[in-house]
Write a structure and sequence with these properties.
CATH superfamily of the largest domain in chain A: Aldolase class I
Helix content of chain A: 40-55%
Shape of chain A: elongated
Mean pLDDT of chain A: 93
Largest interface: A-B, 68 and 68 residues
Number of domains of chain A: 2
Number of helices of chain A: 11
Number of strands of chain A: 12
Oligomer: homohexamer
CATH architecture of the largest domain in chain A: Alpha-Beta Barrel
CATH topology of the largest domain in chain A: TIM Barrel
Order of helices and strands of chain A: HHEEHEEEHEHEHHEHEHEHEHE
Largest sheet of chain A: 6 strands, parallel
Distance between the termini of chain A: 31 Å
């Protein structure tokens, strides 16, 4: 997670601005403090090293001891980390650390619920590009901590021919053919399809992965049977915790879930001063 | 919103990276396209100019016509804007524009629900610093579009003495006194209190605003009566769409709601190519 | 002062560019040196930690011991700090450290003279937005070190309705009313007035702070009497070390002085190699 | 002045932050305004294009017409430029534009006074590295607008062997010799001297320029006679508007004046709305 | 090529610094000029839009007309583009434009020679990560203009298990297995092998692509026969214009050539003023 | 080399992006490794501290011990440095470190060959502005490590009047005269000439350095005789390892060689894991 430093710097700059006038006005220089990060509900942890980075960027003298690791299931009331150092530094870092940790753990937690829901099927839960602008690296990391896997990271590390590319190219076959001839075969070529006819076209044109978009479970069943292992299949659209098991049972290889990063809920964590 | 340019630039850089290999591989240079942004559900709009900026940064030749304005209530099926230009530019901007627009409108929509819930009381709905790191300016703007108001933006544009500052200072009175002597009186001084005893102390020490944290409606009633207009009162903690009306009815001046920016849901908007 | 790192980095980059060819050409690698920062005149110190940052950014091996603290009154000939380390690093940091320290101390010194001039009155000396572009955080800090207080930092952390806003809004009353209805009451609303009639309007419209711009001492007297504690009063315009006492004696609460940051004189400090 | 864009962007970001809440609260969207920049005292203009950049960065629709050019002598009451456009944009740019224009013109004006004082002698007024951190490019430009010339811009575009380099190298001769052997002769080598003995050494070692530091007029006379055209001579230290003519009359080639950029006074310019 | 703006900005900043003193000193403001970019030798063009960006960033008034397109084979003496505008802008942009255009076209030209050398075989010429730091996006683009294809762009858009990863994991099989279980199958897994035994292991472990590193043509023959279409094969190491045809004739699918970006020669292009 | 930090940061960001998925997938956290940088051919070293910076930016726990210094002649098989630390950090830094080190040493090596070729003549080998965009500081440093010297770094640290400036000014004499009157004489003035007539003009106009562009050895002989020590002479154009000795023997003072930075070959260095 090479991006941590940059994101934390930006977040601190945004939150503190030129100085923390309240702390400066009320806390005497040199006052020491000790605080702990405490879980107020159960969740899957992600971002503990990001929290550490927040305090260390503010003040190299702060001691931060993580008691839990990312990907760990946390119980309500458990202490995630101890922080010790200048009271001003702890007070200034509190909000940014929590803002990041609560969101990242929220994503890991939601992901873990989807992963649990498909346990025993062969389906893999993957994320999408529907991430919060500026935080994609942290959010994709959080998906991994929750047991999911990452789909492509950005527009240049994977070929995914969507409906609109097909329209602009003039058909699935020509779009795939163009991609084949212009992109080195180190990359798989994925194509979005909306019905069985398109699945058939994609298959004939030699797609590596076929995205089955917004299909019913019945359609997915047919599509998986049609593809019959000649390409990977990925389901997307209308995926939630109620529907995901049924989708997985159709035998699709991948299920992509935009909600992992656009509809998670920040978990509840407190920073308690001792 | 002076920050728009920077945020959009960062988001595009993150999403596109070095190039969009799919578009480059499948869409012939020079292909033109026309698309519309369509509401898939009702919501309060925020971010239409941000969406415009996305496409214009990618390609100065794109024409973007907004049909709706921020703060407007949108019905399902309504068209928010038309976009016309190079098909590649439209395809590349789609995800970033939607990622921003859906989140911003989600915040405006949630805010408008809180504002509606307290209609007729004197209470004002305000936001908190619990915003997404890197996007605070856009999120605070979205709160305004939803009819809320903004609390302080960062640690240096307002004095808010929290429980931990009080602890570090050694009491509410001394904390307020220090703030008074070190901060010019162009700023109001706000103090967090947890019970009536602390409210009394804050009042005696001359606080301008008294934050009533995590109090029951009964306690809020008492606190408001105790303060009796000698300071502004702000309720926080445990505020949701079920509880907010009862809180407002106690007569508090302000109600701060962290959920506005940490527990909103992205609204559903599509970009449809014609 | 979260901005120190960024400002120092920029200043070093600007001054050194790609390398210091003189030092590189004349000083053998590994040569050690020791130097002291010496006051060549009496002043109030501001910026000693900024000077430390300059040398540490250049070379983590440099030892910097501050003998004086910011806000301290320094006598001519006193040593502010010792610096020990690679001769090249000391030579490269000298100019940037002095450029910052001399300016910051110049501001603190001038501020302390204004503060002394109003001693015993209730008036508080505050700064303005007339700061050097790029250095506002350091300059506002220096004002505090000289005993002054800070007015708003930038356009978004305070409402100050100036003559031109009044003109655009169509009158003082309507401008204040709009501000009231659009800005949360966590912020005070300040209005600029040019005569007693405007003071009266501002008062009736419920301004929290009334800026009395470019008024004579006689007018200030009348204005203060008129306001009679129902709002804070702030004098501005034509304030200098000769006039400030008379202004303070009128009983205004605040006196804002642009000269603190636009007409200070850099104090004289030398870096002497031993 | 390739740096203008960056400096203006930084200055606007610093001054406006996330939004101008006063303008937003009091001025209706779409309100148009017209203003003029007016000289409140006589001065030499510098920075009119920087002022234009301020308004154009804020709003590409603003019309800015410069009536005066940099380097021009301005009379009290003259209009420097007209600005027309959205009232909000004009109000937001006002302070930053004035902060830059007043400082730059202050430098140009002070420089022009030094240049006038030495008129008729062969001496050239040059600046130093004692500039405001972050603004060097603008300040050196302003010196040129005032009729001065620029000494080296940063540590890598000129060799200037100062007292401390000499000490570290072990003597003037060895320092010059090292510089000769390590730096291509496309650059002149300048050496600081404190007395006639050092001048002699520098001359014998083949310095191209001899800096005569803190010498009296009598010493300067002797030094110039001693050098006798075999090197350029530059006087520095103790130079002010009272002493500069006497120094110039000694026949030195260059007079470097730190005060040009560290002790100038911002000139008085107003932005008047019509 | 979303990166063009950033790279050009950096390059101009580096080359011009604070101002072009020669142009400023010798060319009168307002002087117009016209120049053409002329090929001094035959080559494959890449970067003509980058050259345009250089001049437009300097001066929005410059007219730049490209007469040739990227990927086109250029003859000695042909004119690539006309440029018309302020003489100062043309003089300032000349070196940066040529530095970029000559390098990019050098890469395209060398790539086209490799591509020509393997014509008729099925082998595809691909690049590596051995690119110039900071210019990867432009260099990979230039490879495409020369008829090559791009291998992965950076460490996160492809799995390539090299010898050292194998060593750290404890064997080819375990390394592939770990990658399979941790990375979504939207990505192909490539493994570096050094001999037939390793090829066999990689094949059994289910690698998608087998990198045959530094093998002789005889070994490549055997390896291709062994793989027999069950995975893609890629040759690397010891590839130059003499050896590449023999390597391609073994039937490998891909040949990666570090030299494309680390050992190209800048082509000769002049900017001639009329 | 103040720029190292920035360049390395950019290069790592470019190469790693959001994470190294291969290392993450195949190497267990906590695995330690030890590697050495080994010369695969003889060369002159440049950049060893840049390589150190790469690994330290990635991971402050890595130990890097340099066994060779910049400017040293290295034999094939010699170890340049040892690196010890987390296997992941070593694997992630490998390519960036080699990309920089191989290029820098390539420049130093080529420069040393030119310097050796002119040994015994008085001619100095200098570089040009034909450097790789973004890497100029490192490349100019590498030239010094190879025994060459640096010509001006960018457009503002030296006056070099080229053919096109002369054309725009209307003649060599007027161009030099303008430069004299506008630039402080701390800088030398260099003029490009194409024949003896122009050399004569430049000499009469008082140029400090005369650039003899693209002249034959016979013309250079005549030009040097004509100048006869009244100005420095610099040869440029058509300089390669075959021609440089003959050029130097004409007695020119400087020989500028664009090839040093635009036509070097990256040397071969490996990072071997133990």
């Amino acid at each position: 997670m090479f991006e941590i430093e940059r994101i934390v710097r930006l977040a601190l700059h945004e939150d503190i601005g030129q100085c923390d006038i309240t702390t400066q006005a009320t806390v005497e220089k040199g006052t020491q403090a000790r605080a702990e990060l405490v879980a107020k509900e159960p969740f899957v942890l992600a971002g503990i090293e990001v929290a550490r980075e927040v305090f260390l960027q503010l003040d190299g003298q702060v001691a931060f001891e993580a008691l839990k690791s990312d990907a760990e299931a946390i119980q309500k009331g458990e202490v995630l980390a101890w922080i010790k150092g200048g009271a001003g530094s702890l007070l200034q870092g509190e909000r940014v650390a929590l803002n990041l940790l609560q969101r990242m753990s929220g994503i890991a937690t939601l992901t873990s619920q989807f992963v649990a829901a498909v346990a025993g099927t062969g389906a893999v839960i993957v994320d999408t590009r529907k991430t919060t602008p500026g935080l994609r690296a942290l959010e994709k990391y959080s998906v991994r901590m929750g047991g999911g896997k990452n789909h492509r990271t950005s527009l240049y590390d994977g070929v995914l021919i969507k409906e609109n590319h097909v329209a602009a190219a003039g058909g699935i076959a020509v779009a795939i053919e163009r991609a084949r001839s212009r992109v080195a075969h180190v990359m798989k070529i994925e194509v979005e399809t909306r019905d069985l006819q398109e699945v058939r076209e994609a298959l004939e044109a030699g797609a590596d992965i076929i995205l089955l978009d917004n299909m019913s479970v019945a359609e997915l069943d047919e599509a998986v049977a049609l593809v019959d292992g000649r390409a990977l299949t990925e389901a997307s659209g209308g995926v939630n915790l109620e529907t995901v098991r049924g989708i997985a049972d159709t035998g699709v290889d991948l299920i992509s879930v935009g909600a992992l990063t656009h509809s998670f809920r920040a978990v509840d964590i407190s920073m308690l001063f001792q």
